[in-house]
């Protein structure tokens, strides 16, 4: 052993020792005789740095809170939008609006607009009255509301329901508002008794009855006198406003005036002028905008106008007159840059020659010649004296076998090949099927000669008799009708033609399905992303940079602006000019790519108040955030364990499904309200609610059908099954597809029997006589392309 090698053990680490005591065993490099101690200033420096970091975080939060407060309640902030919503028909919202406006402004209800500026409260407010019974108007008001004041009447109490202060329409609107996302909420109680004790008891009763319907931080205020309203205004002014997250991602304007200027060059379209306050974010003149219910458009100009409702009454007093509001002075005007303006691209224009066969290249022609020469040089065993001309007509056995196998592959049903408990058709030659042949040969035994006679009887039946017999068997198995995908095989059309687009799958979860295979023509019009999450992150960061960059083509938030929207159809503009008196017209800025069409998927649930069945591919009006458009969805299950999802013919109540549509691209999170238009001009009803899930054209939705047959004769593991098909050609076509039974047996088709579609099947267990033999077939389903996208024309 070397003398310099000495065993070195690990130093002992004390579990409860301090940091300083752990370093006592270390010696100083300069003076090895002196034991060094860690300086105390190290710990003090770390503690000071930690305290400094905490102080900086507190100051940043305080500055952000102060900035948010100034942005929402300062003199430069846009007017705060307060929506008064009556919870029942007994509530008089008009009188409450008059009292509020008279308290906030000297002009009161006689002002030109519901927007008033109060120097006493240092607050600018827009008061909107939600019309009772008009669901769409209430929804549009809530989308732009900074504060919702739910108004309850203390005199409308009843004993029928626990929430006796809310009627059916109020309850329906409340559920819709929750799906959209509630901003800051208050409850105002009207019609309280004048006597103090009864007044307090009535208020407590109303609060206890309504507390479960609203958020926990919702406050209740009496609203009968001016003192009550004065208290409510002060508290609402000082409260920090909360708005849904989806509303803070895009700039929006609630138009106060809508005008139209007819274009000289195009008499069918015009330029629409909308005036209002800009909320949430800055808006670029190169950006696309969406007018609620009317579609997406480009801007020709943005004008910044002088504020008609300044908070300081001494400034610009002449602008407060109602007659001069339309003559507001223009401070600044912005025009779009043709190179930077985002194009209004909705659909992709496909190339009709794309995918056509081209002339073969020289390499392909050379390879074909080489293969032809090799085929000629191949030696074949020919009879003596055979000429070359005669040899060309002689086909080898190998060629014959290849042709037969190719014909079988072309004529047979397509089946996804996976590992199976049963051999597929190519491996049946390797099995010893002598026993099977003997057991399934219907003429070998006396027992099975009865089947032959039954088949002959079936051949003599007419079409009506066969349908009646099938219906009788279906009625006998009515208690097992828990499979909603069962369909009947038609008698007049061959099954191989009727179900030509369907295929079999060995496993719904693990079998492969190419998402690019056999796409419909509508897929040539839409857009897709390689990575949707990455694109969304890039688009949102680009919008944030535009917000913080102080660019010259952007209008800052809180500005009073006039938008010039070009190429609006005259019918749409006239409709908006008439609707602005009752329904708010909302203009929202679009992010990049949000005008293009794609396949959108929504997590959706049927609304409790809607009792009619909702069928796939019906026409609905989708309210997605600020946007409205017409769509024809298909419904499917959300299978998290597979890339394939089963289509549902109806939207079932009580559970969530996925609705897939062709629609304009949107970036989540966004709420969804689905409306069903009623016939005869009646008000639309809420059919479903939900939220945006993803944008993915490659999501595979499979429509499943189940063909059923019934055992005619059972012999151990073999059975003769009838009424699944009605001719032997169909049996041969669907031969590769696996069959299963409702009692859990699985098997395969062996061969047809007779001429009326009876088939022999081999199963993995004994088949009961009352069992049902099934075959599952699948095809890919797609949504329907909408006929038009603007729901405002249907209003």
Automatic annotation (TrEMBL):
It comes from the Eukaryota. Keywords: Coiled coil, Nucleus, Ribosome biogenesis. Residues 25-34 have a biased composition (Basic and acidic residues). Residues 78-242 form the Bms1-type G domain. Residues 396-413 have a biased composition (Acidic residues). Residues 1-49, 333-357, 391-447 are annotated as: Disordered. Its main location: nucleus. GO terms for molecular function: GTP binding; GTPase activity; U3 snoRNA binding. It is found in: Nucleus, Nucleolus. GO terms for biological process: endonucleolytic cleavage of tricistronic rRNA transcript (SSU-rRNA, 5.8S rRNA, LSU-rRNA); maturation of SSU-rRNA from tricistronic rRNA transcript (SSU-rRNA, 5.8S rRNA, LSU-rRNA). InterPro entries: AARP2CN, Bms1/Tsr1, BMS1_TSR1_C, G_Bms1/Tsr1_dom. GO terms for cellular component: nucleolus; preribosome, small subunit precursor. Residues 456-483 form a coiled coil. Pfam families: AARP2CN (PF08142), RIBIOP_C (PF04950), Tsr1_G-like (PF22298). Belongs to the TRAFAC class translation factor GTPase superfamily. Bms1-like GTPase family. TSR1 subfamily. This is Bms1-type G domain-containing protein.
């Amino acid at each position: 052993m070397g003398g310099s090698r000495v065993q070195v053990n690990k130093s002992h680490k004390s579990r409860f020792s301090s940091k300083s005591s752990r370093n006592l065993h270390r010696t100083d490099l300069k003076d090895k005789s002196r034991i060094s101690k860690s300086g105390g200033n190290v710990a003090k420096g770390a503690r000071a740095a930690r305290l400094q970091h905490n102080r900086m975080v507190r100051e940043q939060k305080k500055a952000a809170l102060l900035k948010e407060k100034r942005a929402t309640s300062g003199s430069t902030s846009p007017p705060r939008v307060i929506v008064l919503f009556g919870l029942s028909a007994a509530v008089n919202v008009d009188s409450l609006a008059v009292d509020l406006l008279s308290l906030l402004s000297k002009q009161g209800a006689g002002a030109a607009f519901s927007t008033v500026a109060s120097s006493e409260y240092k607050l600018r407010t827009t008061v909107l009255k939600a019309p009772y019974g008009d669901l769409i108007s209430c929804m549009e008001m809530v989308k732009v509301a900074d504060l919702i004041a739910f108004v309850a009447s203390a005199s409308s109490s009843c004993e029928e329901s626990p929430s006796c202060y809310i009627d059916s329409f109020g309850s329906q609107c409340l559920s819709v508002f929750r799906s959209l996302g509630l901003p800051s909420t208050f409850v105002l109680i009207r019609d309280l008794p004048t006597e103090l004790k009864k007044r307090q008891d009535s208020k407590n009763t109303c609060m206890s009855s309504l507390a479960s319907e609203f958020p926990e931080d919702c406050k209740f205020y009496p609203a009968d006198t001016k003192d009550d309203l004065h208290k409510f205004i002060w508290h609402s002014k000082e409260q920090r406003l909360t708005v849904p997250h989806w509303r803070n991602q895009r700039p929006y304007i609630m138009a106060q005036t809508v005008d139209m200027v007819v274009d000289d060059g195009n008499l069918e379209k015009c330029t629409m002028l909308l005036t209002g306050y800009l909320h949430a974010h800055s808006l670029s003149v190169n950006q696309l905008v969406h007018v609620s219910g009317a579609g997406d458009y480009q801007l020709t100009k943005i004008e910044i106008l002088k504020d008609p409702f300044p908070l300081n009454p001494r400034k610009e007093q002449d602008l407060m007159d109602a007659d001069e509001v339309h003559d507001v002075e223009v401070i600044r005007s912005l025009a779009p840059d043709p190179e930077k303006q985002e194009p209004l691209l909705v659909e992709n224009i496909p190339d009709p020659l794309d995918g056509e066969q081209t002339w073969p290249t020289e390499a392909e022609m050379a390879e074909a010649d080489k293969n032809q020469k090799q085929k000629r040089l191949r030696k074949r065993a020919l009879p003596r004296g055979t000429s070359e001309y005669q040899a060309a007509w002689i086909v080898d056995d190998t060629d014959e076998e290849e042709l037969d196998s190719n014909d079988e592959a072309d004529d047979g049903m397509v089946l996804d090949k996976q590992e199976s408990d049963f051999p597929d058709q190519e491996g049946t030659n390797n099995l010893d099927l002598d026993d099977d042949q003997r057991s399934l040969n219907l003429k070998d035994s006396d027992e099975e000669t009865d089947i032959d006679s039954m088949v002959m009887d079936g051949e003599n039946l007419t079409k009506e008799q066969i349908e009646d017999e099938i219906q009788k068997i279906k009625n006998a198995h009515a208690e097992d009708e828990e499979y909603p995908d069962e369909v009947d095989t038609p008698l007049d059309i061959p099954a191989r033609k009727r179900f030509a687009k369907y295929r079999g799958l060995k496993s719904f979860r693990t079998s492969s399905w190419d998402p690019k295979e056999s796409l419909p023509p509508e897929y040539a019009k839409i857009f897709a992303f390689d990575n949707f999450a990455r694109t969304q992150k890039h688009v949102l960061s680009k919008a944030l940079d535009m917000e913080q960059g102080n660019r010259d083509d952007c209008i800052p938030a809180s500005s009073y602006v006039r938008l010039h929207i070009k190429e609006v159809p005259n019918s749409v503009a006239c409709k908006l000019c008439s609707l602005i008196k009752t329904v708010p017209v909302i203009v929202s800025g679009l992010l990049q790519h949000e005008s293009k069409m794609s396949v959108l998927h929504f997590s959706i649930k049927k609304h409790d108040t809607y009792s009619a069945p909702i069928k796939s591919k019906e026409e609905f009006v989708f309210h997605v955030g600020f946007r409205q458009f017409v769509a024809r969805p298909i419904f499917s299950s959300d299978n998290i364990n597979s890339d394939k999802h089963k289509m549902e013919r109806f939207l079932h109540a009580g559970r969530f499904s996925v609705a897939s549509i062709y629609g304009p691209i949107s970036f989540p999170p966004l709420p969804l309200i689905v409306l069903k238009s009623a016939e005869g001009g009646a008000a639309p009803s809420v059919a479903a609610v939900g939220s945006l899930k993803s944008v993915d054209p490659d999501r595979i939705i499979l429509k499943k059908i189940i063909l059923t047959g019934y055992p005619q004769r059972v012999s151990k593991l073999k059975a003769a099954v009838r009424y699944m098909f009605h001719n032997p050609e169909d049996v041969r076509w669907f031969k590769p597809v696996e069959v299963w039974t409702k009692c859990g047996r699985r098997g395969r088709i062996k061969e047809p029997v007779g001429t009326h579609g009876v088939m022999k099947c081999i199963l993995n267990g004994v088949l009961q006589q009352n069992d049902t033999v099934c075959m599952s077939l699948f095809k890919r389903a797609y949504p329907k392309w909408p006929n038009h996208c603007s729901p405002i024309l249907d209003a």
